[in-house]
Specification:
It is a single chain. By secondary structure, the protein is mainly alpha-helical. It folds into two domains: 1-59, no CATH class; 62-106, no CATH class. Helices cover 41% and strands 8% of the residues. The protein is built from four helices and two strands; from the N terminus they run ααααββ. Strands 1-2 form a two-stranded antiparallel sheet. The chain is elongated and about 60 Å long.
Length: 106
Amino acid sequence: MGRKLKSGAGAGTPGVPESPTWQIIRSLATAEADASRLLEMYYWTREPGIVEMIRAYLALPEQSQRHLNGFLIGNQPQAIATAIDQQGRLILSGGDPASPPKGQRR
């Protein structure tokens, strides 16, 4: 008697469609992907909190993502100042990091 394969586990088995996960694994394993980019992605996933941050970003409305992208790309990272206002909102500014926006606290 043959072993039964789990659904999607028939990678390379005639007549059994590959799952999207298997397709990704196959492309990574067969050098269809750039190895240096794969290694870089792995290192990024090792950063504490990065996965949660990515999930939070992806949960933002599309317009908010565009605004945040434009702000982050349009400023030097070291020049971005942050503050929390009295309502608990995060305030980002592209000015001098030493001086938070007027009426705001760090």
